Amino acid sequence: MKVLAVHPSALMYTKVFLRLEPLGMELVAGAARNAGHDVRIIDLQAETHEDYWELIEEFQPDAVCYSGSYLANVPEILDLCRETRYRFPLVFQFIGGHSVSFIAKDVLELSEGTVNCILKGEGDATVGLLLDAVQNGKDILEVPGTVTLDGEGPPPIFVKSLDEVRPARDLLRHRNKYFIGTLDPAASIEFARGCPWDCTFCSAWTFYGRSYRTASPQVIADELEEIKEPGIFIVDDVAFVHEEHGMAIANEIKKRGIKKEYYLETRADVLLRNKEVFKVWSEIGLSYIFIGMEAVDEEGLKQFRKRVSLDKNFEALEYARSLGLIVAINIIADPSWDRARFEAVRQWCLEIPDIVNISVTTPYPGTEIWHKEARRLTTRDYRLFDIQHAVLPTTLPLPEFYEELVKTQQVLNTKHMGWQALKDTAGIAVNLLKNGQTNFVKMLWKFNSVFNPDLQLADHQRPARYLMPMQPDAVDNIDRNDLYVHGPGGRKTRALDDATETFVDKTRMGEEV
């Protein structure tokens, strides 16, 4: 079969700070190609809808699959499905990815028959099975993870080994368009998949059933050697949970003389436990580290069940700085914040040298806060669920909330964007421009055109074609089994030694380690 894989357009935040290689879509495309199908990819972060229609006219695919990893992309995907069905009535259309796995029935009903099925769970594990079933006229509900308006197939399954799934990087048409910070261009790579923690605001653990699986250091090094981009974004939800694995990858990189620059995300407690790993990585090219603090007080940390003390967070920041790393942190703005709270956060963030990102508390399907807060939603417009819009009642009037939010973001970004940022990174910028890379330099002045309180407020007034269904009353006692996409498999699904497993359990329960 001829298969077109489609990644939707950029979200608000990614229009400024980064544009990441669609690694999940490349993995699905690679699995489909390995199953014998002819595959193309189009990424609407870097191309246009006109490009999509030109490609589909030229390629004439038998099937089109869409990446539904982000909730805010659901309307765009559904519009494309409707128009594609109208123009090409015989094409088989399906959607996979993180977010749609939690809301499969809702999306199918909104599609009004234009989507044939949702493929829940790890798409690279089952896309070949689905395409073979379609090609051979078999019942697609026999494929694990499939959902149609007529019912559900068997539960989704994991890929047998992360070593066996390789992304079809060669199918991406504009590889120079992807960057994160000064890593321009940057490719993305996966060292491990899943998360063994259980934060209330996150759906990584509910998607993967609290599993944690790793790729072998040799396969990772093979892939790094093949990647042409000098910058590498490590996509793991929490990098280097397992000390031995992180060190083994570093040793393999050193042995082969691989020269790259890396950006990763991790937890403060993991950084402090595995200091030597991060020290070694700082010596082989790690330059950026993102630490999801989420809150600047103990009450906020408790709310998100982060269970890392403020002292540990600050200690981790200090250690990362001591390694010469550029440190970025995330703070979640709660709808309950008033002007005084915003001002306190601004002052705290200005006192530290690190890059600070402010996002907005957003209940997502698959998270615990979704089940507790969904009934209180002030909007059911999928487009607003992008962590930059308030979808819960705010203490301040909404216009004032956005004024304070953007003011806070503007103050913080002034430290790292515009002329000051260009001055600090002049050498890097000149080299990038010499090589024809303009993503980072263009980003420095885009903030005001994207982050604007009037525009954010106006987004709430736009007519919404696709609405979330009304939600039931909040649930205080949540059955965790109802949250999972991949059912929990317990200890055997986590590639951790006993000491690391104990560490994870203790930090999940809020114990000092």
In short:
The protein has 513 residues and is of the alpha/beta class.
Give an overview of the whole structure.
With 513 residues, this protein is of the alpha/beta class. It is 40% helix and 15% strand. It has 22 helices and 17 strands. It has a seven-stranded mixed sheet with strand order 3-1-4-5-6-7-8, with helices on both faces. Helix 1 (23-34) packs across helix 6 (123-135), helix 8 (217-226) crosses helix 9 and helix 16 crosses helix 21 (453-459). The N and C termini lie far apart (53 Å). The mean pLDDT is 90.
What is the CA-atom radius of gyration, in angstroms?
22 Å
Q: Which class do the helix and strand fractions yield? A: alpha/beta
> What characteristic shape results from the CA principal axes?
globular
Portion of residues in beta strands equals 15-25%
Pick out the low-confidence regions: none
InterPro entries: Aldolase_TIM (IPR013785), BchE-like (IPR051198), Cobalamin-bd (IPR006158), Cobalamin-bd_sf (IPR036724), Elp3/MiaA/NifB-like_rSAM (IPR006638), HpnR_B12_rSAM (IPR027564), Methyltransferase_Class_B (IPR034466), rSAM (IPR007197)
Cofactor: [4Fe-4S] cluster
GO biological process, one term: methylation
Protein name: Hopanoid C-3 methylase HpnR
